[in-house]
Amino acid sequence: MKRAYHDILLPDGTLQHGPVIVETDAEGQYLGWRRLREEEALTEWIGGTFSLADSCQKEK
């Protein structure tokens, strides 16, 4: 699943301004992120800031 956010907060505390795409698998496990360069099909716009640190903690 692809979701778009304004920004992403990395585990080291760095805030990367976007927009960014965060991808997860069918079970919601984090797969990766990248900058949104153009409109992408099947992307849900969430907005706000995605916290990667929170996502990584859930996986542990």
Summarize the structure in words:
- With 60 residues, the chain is mainly beta.
- It has one helix and five strands, in the order E-E-E-E-E-H.
- Strands 1, 2, 3, 4 and 5 form a five-stranded mixed sheet that branches.
- The longest helix has 8 residues.
- The two termini are 21 Å apart.
- The model has no long low-confidence stretch (mean pLDDT 89).
What value does the Rg take, in angstroms?
A: 11 Å
Q: Tell me the β content.
A: over 45%
Spans of at least 5 consecutive residues with low confidence: none
- Summing up helix and strand content along with how strands pair, one would put the structural category as mainly beta
Overview features:
mainly beta, 5-stranded mixed β-sheet, 60 residues, 13% helix, 1 helix
In short:
13% of the residues lie in helices and 50% in strands. It is built from 1 helix and 5 strands; from the N terminus they run βββββα.
What's the structural blueprint in terms of helices and strands?
Elements: E1 2-9, E2 15-24, E3 30-35, E4 43-45, E5 49-51, H1 52-59
Parallel strand pairs: 1-4, 1-5
Antiparallel strand pairs: 1-2, 2-3
